[in-house]
Amino acid sequence: MIRTLAFLSAFALAGCSVVDDAVPLAQGESGQSAHAEALYAENCAVCHDGGVAGAPTREALAALSPAAIIEALDTGVMREQGASLDRIDRILLSQHVGNEAAGADVAIEYCEGDLTFAGAPKWNRWGANARNTRFQSNSDAGLDLVDIPKMELAWAFGFPGAQRARSQPAVTEEAIFTGSQSGRVYALDTETGCAWWTYEAGAEVRNAPLLSTGSDGNPDTLYFGDFDAIVHAVDARTGERRWSQSIQDHPDGTITGSLALHDGTLFVPMSSTEIVSAYLDDYACCTFRGGVIALDAQNGATQWRWHTVDVPRKVGESSVGTDVIAPSGAPVWSTPTIDAERGLLYVGTGENYSSPANDLSDAIVALDLTTGQRRWAFQSTPNDAWNAACGRDPKPNCPSQDGPDFDFGAPPMLVDLAGGGQILLAGQKSGEIFGLDPDNSGKLLWRRRVGMGGFNGGIHWGMASDGATLWVGIADTPGNKFAKGPPRPGIHAFNPRTGAPLWSRIEEPTCDEVAYKCMTALSAPLSAIPGAVFAGAHNGRLLAYSSEDGSVLWSDETNREFETVNGVQAKGGTIDSSGVVIAGGLVIVNSGYDKFGEIPGNVLLVYRRRGS
Predict the structure, then answer these.
(1) Which residues have C-beta within 8 Å of that of residue 316, sequence separation ≥ 6?
(2) Are the beta carbons of 131 and 414 closer than 8 angstroms?
(3) Is residue 130 part of a domain?
(4) Cα separations (Å) of 246 from 227, 252, 255, 590?
């Protein structure tokens, strides 16, 4: 799990209100303000004034509505911390830190008529295909190499009240489907950005929506998961709910990765925010069990559930007397990969939350598609146990192994090699890449270091391959004591069969400050078409590289304000978590990410070739 001591990792903005909870005015406004500031200093400042890398800054919190903050404290990622405050103090704190104007809803401009489809999706699934290779043919991309230098912004869409935009879209010829921090899911017209429909999930939708197709080959149902670990199935044409199903088997359970679909079954990765709960000294750490659940795509019924750890049990006590419970954690916060030919599902796992670590953390695991039984596992980094308590001092809940927190946040890719055969490729936050043999129980074929590694990568969210080349984005942001070698942020190319390096382009910082506005790190997943690889950087720069030598073919600056088609005040920022989508002649990206002190933003950007 990424180091996310975020005050507001995700929560619903829409429909939340603190108006009904009248705040006593006996102290007067100045007295309330002083009391609220004291609450902030005692309960929040240690993280949000720069003490914890994963926490949004106070400036970022000030751009959020009080409703968003109160929900995070009541039922969201900070509910354990909020439980120590009474209801009135939570309201005072949210009103003092937040911005009431940020919660103002904006009228939605709906398209005229009904949404209909005239063909299959142009970009679907997190990885553009079930094997997660993130490679698009020219026909689906609707874009040739000669078109790329001619790309210009067609329109921008602002997400109300948001400080991050991380739900990578699914795209058809007619619509762009994307989630938001508020929990609202949009079907936007590809030409104008008007809304065909909206759907209220109730909690942040941060993964990539997934379209199924009907017997006519046209989109039928849209699937996605929300922060409250609820899977939703809605009519792709109307946005009407078909079913919703909770998969939560732990109070802190959530869905970070995107869903996979095969032969009528949805495969849902299970992650959690218990890594944050462990920050509290009196929290008994830890009991979450990562894994995957398989659901019937027609009705949401559970088919099987698999966990990465056995049932945790008490193994000791912390320095303050709370129980130490293990094994725990090993979340799956990336998208499962389908291997239909072998009947396997491949997943990457994260670190354990408590010591001792088990043998399925920081691993690539193959599961039987039908039963969920484990077929084999490859563990790259044993003895990795870490949680948010390790970022403070004293740290009674920090596992004795204390890191290195080198998850597989990027899903494995099943690649058809040029010249024949297949290989399973994996990239880790350690900064290493791996070639595994899918025909020989995941046997390691090669292993190569690309970057120095770190808690945000190394390889963070994803790579891309066409079978002839593997393209790897490296973040290498500073701050991990387990990093090896010099930082190598940028894009790197390898022979996927052998792991031999082909070329590298190191992106030097754009200014001298140690700040995200200067960082050229590539944390978001790469996306490729014939001749070009698209990437988004921590500083907000959007780039298209030559797939042959890494030269820059085109770029645009997203770290700025944008005029939006829906009238929402919006700006871009860090591009992270969500990758570039190339579909139907469009280049689409979300910009803005408020974690780890990165640059907040709330905009969806749609580019097309000039004159088209």
Answers:
(1) 323, 324
(2) yes
(3) no
(4) 11, 13, 10, 27
At 390, is the secondary structure helix, strand, or coil? helix
Query: What digits encode the pLDDT tens for the residues 299-326?
Result: 999 999 999 999 999 999 999 999 999 9
3-state SS class at 336: coil
Give the domain-ending residue among 77, 103, 129. Answer: 103
Alpha carbon distance 557, 435 (integer Å) = 35
Claim to verify: residue 158 and residue 51 sit in the same structural domain: no
Residue-wise pLDDT tens digits, 343-400: 999 999 999 999 999 999 999 999 999 999 999 999 999 999 999 999 888 889 999 9
- Domain assignment present for residue 4? The answer is no
- Rounded to the nearest 10°, the torsion over CA 267, 269, 270, 276 is -160
Q: Rounded to an integer, what distance in angstroms lies between the CA atom of residue 303 and that of residue 292? A: 11
Q: Is residue 367 part of a domain?
A: yes
Could you tell me if 62 and 154 lie in one domain?
A: no
* Shared domain check, 168 and 88: no
Phi first, then psi, for residue 146 (nearest 5°) are -70, -15
C-alpha separations of 116 from 109, 113, 173, 175 in Å:
18, 9, 10, 9
Beta bridge pairs of residue 268? 293
Domain that residue 33 falls in: 28-103
* Residue showing tokens 């270091």: 449
**Each residue's pLDDT tens digit, 455-512:** 889 999 999 999 999 999 999 998 888 999 999 999 999 999 999 999 999 999 999 9
199 has which bridge partners?
185
Element (H, E) at 211: strand 210-213
Domain finish residue from 57, 76, 103:
103
99 lies in the same domain as 143: no
How many C-beta neighbours within 10 Å does residue 486 have?
Answer: 9
Element of type H or E holding 267: strand 265-272
- The pair phi, psi for residue 205, each rounded to 5°, is -110, 105
Q: Are residues 376 and 502 in the same domain?
A: yes
Question: What is the value of pTM for the model shown?
Answer: 0.88
